[in-house]
């Protein structure tokens, strides 16, 4: 390996940062092109999450524009095959994030320019317009998009390859959307732990360039490796890299958690490594295009098992893709927690003080602007009824600044506390009386499970599979103005009518028991992981 550095300029990033980035870059491209001569042209980047790579297969002669002021140097890595054409990789070394980016990489949310005046006059009217646009997208999706699984031929045994050749312990590849806060990510982290427990080595990749702030949650174990394809490799090269990783590391199982480029790698993988088993897990049907369940269903003939978290998703796959034979329901519940008694509900009729909670990311899906409108209306209700009301909002995201401005505008800043998403959720839920979840869409929100466990009554919009846990009396209409009005009426009834409150609590407890009769995600996935681990071991013994 040879590296030439310019003498007139040195990188502003610390040397250890650049060295760490280079090590990951080399590991990816040397696996992708194991026999080729690699020529890296490295630049100082101004992006903390993405290296903006350009890959040229064949001879390349740099021009003056390739030695721009950001140029760091040229790194040459000789290949094993002298006759193989070289590969040139030009990329910018991502810089270290600044303190603000470390907490939030996305820019602060701003209303759409054409509707900005409406937002400043009345944020809820703005939300109503946005809701109507979203419902129009859903209508167009239902009318205009055919949801058909791609056809796949399974080939003939006469042309089947020799099977896996790697001699290492069996492994699993887990593809994630990103390593940030989210329900799908929570399940993926659980799966990583279960795979290690089953005896598999674990490789993790993520689709979306991000700081991957939850990477620290990955177990500190020699059998787990996080490969930063999100940072260094364009999506169109993922199929080739994934196939080489599968062949070289004895990967017997691929598990997809909302990882779009890994779905697109499946044809190449099925052609080159047909013995690999593929499963995926999905959570929520998006309004615009169906989201990941639609992507998953499209690739259904390339997937062995669809793990879903709700009956709502089972119906979606059956109705749209006729995939009944490969569906597996596994609830995002812990069997040991199901065996424990539920914490008694904190809410009591006629209480003189009420504590409301919200837990979730500050993104549009959770409708934080509607949440502030609900809290404003509830504060008015509380003043009329002589109730002391406070709220705690836990989360992070691009809507945070807008939420803080609205709280100050409405005079609620002293009554509403915003907490970091890194604080324990269960402590808040055990303090609070009612959890508010005015989302535009959900799968079956994990925080609602947690609320019931910890004695907090969840109130949610009627979206996704929320009605599989929440009774009819605790569900709100979706339209923003109706959501706010119905939330105040519901809280008023829970506060005034002890019998109604008792019925809702009884129905929540009954739903919790009913869901506990279904298999958990671990009970569905762990046998698959154990089978992959034992298959690899049996081959080695043979």
From TrEMBL:
This protein's UniProt keywords: Transferase
SUPFAM superfamilies, per database record: UDP-Glycosyltransferase/glycogen phosphorylase (SSF53756)
Keyword match Transmembrane: no
This protein's record includes keyword Zinc: no
One of the Pfam families matching this protein, by short name: Glyco_trans_1_4
Molecular function per GO: transferase activity
Listed PANTHER family: GLYCOSYLTRANSFERASE
Stated name of the protein: Glycosyltransferase
Organism of this sequence: Paracoccus alkanivorans
């Amino acid at each position: 390996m040879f590296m030439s550095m310019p003498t007139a300029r040195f990188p502003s990033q610390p040397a250890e940062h650049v060295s760490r980035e280079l090590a990951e870059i080399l590991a990816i491209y040397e696996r992708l092109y194991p026999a080729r001569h690699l020529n890296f042209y490295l630049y100082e980047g101004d992006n903390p999450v993405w290296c903006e790579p350009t890959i040229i297969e064949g001879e390349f002669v740099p021009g003056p524009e390739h030695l721009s002021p950001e140029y760091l140097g040229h790194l040459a890595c000789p290949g094993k095959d002298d006759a193989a054409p070289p590969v040139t990789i030009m990329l910018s070394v991502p810089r270290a994030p600044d303190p603000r980016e470390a907490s939030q990489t996305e820019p602060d949310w701003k209303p759409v320019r054409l509707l900005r005046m409406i937002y400043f006059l009345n944020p809820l009217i703005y939300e109503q317009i946005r809701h109507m646009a979203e419902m129009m997208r859903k209508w167009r999706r239902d009318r205009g998009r055919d949801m058909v699984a791609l056809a796949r031929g399974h080939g003939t045994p006469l042309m089947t390859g020799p099977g896996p050749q790697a001699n290492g312990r069996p492994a699993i590849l887990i593809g994630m959307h990103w390593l940030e806060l989210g329900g799908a990510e929570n399940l993926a982290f659980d799966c990583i732990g279960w795979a290690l427990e089953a005896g598999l080595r674990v490789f993790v990749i993520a689709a979306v360039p991000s700081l991957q702030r939850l990477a620290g949650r990955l177990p500190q174990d020699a059998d787990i490796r996080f490969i930063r394809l999100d940072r260094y490799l364009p999506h169109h090269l993922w199929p080739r890299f994934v196939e080489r990783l599968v062949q070289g590391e004895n990967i017997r199982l691929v598990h997809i958690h909302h990882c779009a480029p890994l779905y697109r790698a499946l044809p190449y993988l099925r052609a080159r490594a047909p013995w690999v088993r593929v499963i995926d897990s999905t959570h929520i049907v998006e309004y615009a295009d169906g989201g990941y369940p639609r992507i998953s269903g499209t690739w259904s003939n390339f997937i062995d098992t669809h793990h879903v978290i709700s009956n709502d998703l089972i119906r979606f796959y059956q109705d749209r893709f006729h995939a009944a034979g490969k569906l597996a329901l596994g609830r995002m519940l812990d069997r040991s927690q199901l065996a424990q008694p539920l914490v008694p509900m904190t809410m009591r009729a006629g209480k003189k003080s009420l504590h409301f909670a919200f837990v979730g990311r500050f993104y549009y899906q959770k409708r934080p602007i509607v949440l502030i409108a609900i809290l404003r209306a509830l504060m008015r209700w509380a003043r009329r009824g002589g109730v002391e009301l406070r709220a705690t909002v836990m989360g992070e995201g691009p809507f945070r600044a807008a939420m803080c401005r609205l709280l100050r505008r409405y005079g609620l800043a002293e009554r509403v506390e915003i907490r970091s998403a890194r604080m324990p959720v269960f402590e808040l839920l055990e303090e609070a009386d009612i959890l508010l979840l005015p989302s535009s869409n959900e799968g079956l929100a994990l925080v609602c499970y947690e609320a019931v466990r910890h004695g907090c009554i969840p109130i949610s919009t009627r979206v996704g599979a929320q009605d599989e846990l929440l009774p009819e009396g605790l569900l709100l209409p979706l339209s923003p103005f109706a959501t706010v009005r119905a939330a105040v009426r519901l809280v008023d009834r829970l506060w005034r009518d002890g019998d109604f409150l008792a019925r809702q609590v009884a129905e929540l407890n009954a739903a919790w028991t009913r869901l506990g009769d279904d298999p958990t995600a671990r009970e569905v996935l762990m046998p698959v992981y154990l089978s992959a681990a034992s298959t690899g071991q049996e081959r080695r013994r043979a």
